[in-house]
Amino acid sequence: MPKIKSSRGAGKRFKLTATGKVKRQKAYRSHILTKKSKKRKRKLRKSTQLSKGDQKRIKRLMGW
Q1: pLDDT value at position 27?
Q2: pLDDT tier at 20 (50, 70, 90 boundaries)?
Q3: Nearest Cα to 62, choosing from 1, 3, 5, 2?
Q4: I want to staple 22 with a disulfide (CB 3.0 to 4.6 A). Which of 17, 29, 46, 50 is the partner?
Q5: Are the C-beta atoms of 62 and 8 separated by less than 8 Å?
C-alpha cells in the first residue's frame, strides 16, 4: 500500500501534543498591529488547541 501524503499546508500550521491533541497558533497577528493593544498582541503570541471537531479533520489531513 502507498503511504498517505499529509497536507503540506496543514503540516506547517499544526503540531501534535504529547496527549494527542492538535496545537495551533492564534490568528490576527501578522499585520496592522499598530491599532491592537499590547495586551491583545501578547495574548496572541500563545498557542492554543483546536476544537474537537476540527481536530478530527486535521488529523485526517495529516495522516495521524
Answers
A1: 95
A2: very high
A3: 5
A4: 50
A5: no
- For residue 58, give the 3-state DSSP assignment: helix
pTM: 0.78
Report yes or no: 59 and 15 within 8 Å, Cβ to Cβ: no
Task: List beta partners, residue 16.
Answer: 22
Taking the C-alpha atoms of residue 8 and residue 38, their distance in angstroms, rounded to an integer, is 32
Domains of the chain, CATH where assigned: 8-62 (4.10.410.60)
With helix as H, strand as E and coil as C, how does 8-56 read?
A: HHHHHHCEECCCCCEEEECCCCCCCCCCCCHHHHHHHHCEEECCHHHHH
